[in-house]
Amino acid sequence: MADKVEAFVRDVVVPYEKDTRRDHHGAPTDALLMDMRVHARAAGVLTPHIRPDGTHLTQRETAVVLIRSGLSPLGPLACNTGAPDEGNMYLIGHVGTPDLKQRFLKPLVEGTARSAFFMTEPAGWQGAGSDPSMMKTTCRKDGNHWVVNGRKTFITGALGAKVGIVMAASADAETKGGACMFLVDLPDDAIRIDDIPNTIDSSMPGGHATLTLDDLRVPADQMLGHPGEGFKYAQIRLSPARLSHCMRWLGCCIRAQEIATDYACRRTAFGKVLIDHEGVGFMLAENRILIQQCDVMIDWCASVLDGGSLGTVESSMAKVAVSEALMKIADNCVQLMGGTGVTGHTIVEQVFREIRAFRIYDGPTEVHKWSLAKKIKRDWKQANPEHAA
């Protein structure tokens, strides 16, 4: 399957990189997305990480497939392996009831709908960002419905999405403060998009919206899981989703390395091809090492998740190590290509922008390091109770 995905991305998707069907933020339009998915469906590579019976590939198997789909920034969109849909499909598949899966998961798996995950909130509102416990969006029970009010920001793909997963803090006495998740049909008049800012990345349709939820009424049977357990479900989604990002962007950096290598082996300066200059050749060598290290880190973390662990610690380590390594790879590719590296003549410039954003979303590097440091301290105190303060 991975070989089929790679052949499809290289032969069919890569030519679409010059397609002008983009919105004013530079992101692919849904028309471009659905056009590519027609070809993916015909090639048998649409949603390749989910088997026909609805079960998922293992995380290690998923890695092999998603890395190949990432060989173009458009590959995950075409193959339906991209964010946020891939993570949302994983969550609904693990937590949703049969009825919810039929109604909300089926169109996502079939690639006929996009989705959005409503968790992050505006900083000026003092809402949930990297700290979900700060969530200000609330939900309260009203008969056989829940009513949701609040604000969300950086909601990837909200514009044009048909399925939403909304996260809110319960205001009910029994579950007060606990998070709840709801599946909603989009668009909904009670969800108002306030702003879609221009951002450094441009690979995901629908942008990253800021929006207001004003008395959004959701039938009680559209709650995902049980009331008050939303934070637990978020971890079910976020740990593998962080790793999936690592997989896809590693694929993009492998392609950027290929483009930079071709450039360095053809371009001459000061009497020899660029790769024969140590300053250039060493950057490509460093990239080769970093690519291998990323592959090993992804495989290790995937093995932990396949072993039945939530893998929050491991996914944090993978997110930090891989995102920082990919940033260096992308930067090296831009640098050694000189002026060409900062133009849109190749995807190298876009890969650099996308990786820069990746270092922030799904938890910036510093938050993951802080979380890991807390774990180190807890482990030390358990091992040294007589010295623990």
UniProtKB/TrEMBL annotation:
List, separated by semicolons, the cofactors it needs: FAD
A GO molecular function assigned to this protein is:
acyl-CoA dehydrogenase activity
GO cellular component annotations, sorted alphabetically? cytoplasm
Q: Which InterPro entries match?
A: Acyl-CoA_dehydrogenase, Acyl-CoA_Oxase/DH_mid-dom, Acyl-CoA_Oxase/DH_mid-dom_sf, AcylCo_DH-like_C, AcylCo_DH/oxidase_C, AcylCoA_DH/ox_N_sf, AcylCoA_DH/oxidase_NM_dom_sf
**In this record, what's one Pfam family?**
Acyl-CoA_dh_1
Boundaries of each Acyl-CoA dehydrogenase/oxidase C-terminal domain copy?
A: 228-375
Q: Which domain of life is it from?
A: Bacteria
Presence of keyword Flavoprotein:
yes
Task: List residues of the Acyl-CoA oxidase/dehydrogenase middle domain.
Answer: 116-198
Q: Which GO terms describe its biological process?
A: fatty acid beta-oxidation using acyl-CoA dehydrogenase
Sorted alphabetically, which keywords does the UniProt record give? Answer: FAD, Flavoprotein, Oxidoreductase
The entry's family comment says:
Belongs to the acyl-CoA dehydrogenase family.
Q: Sorted alphabetically, which PANTHER family does this protein's record hold?
A: ACYL-COA DEHYDROGENASE FAMILY MEMBER 11 (PTHR48083:SF13), MEDIUM-CHAIN SPECIFIC ACYL-COA DEHYDROGENASE, MITOCHONDRIAL-RELATED (PTHR48083)
Q: What is this protein called?
A: Acyl-CoA dehydrogenase
**What organism is recorded for this protein?**
Sphingomonas populi
Lineage per the UniProt record: Bacteria, Pseudomonadati, Pseudomonadota, Alphaproteobacteria, Sphingomonadales
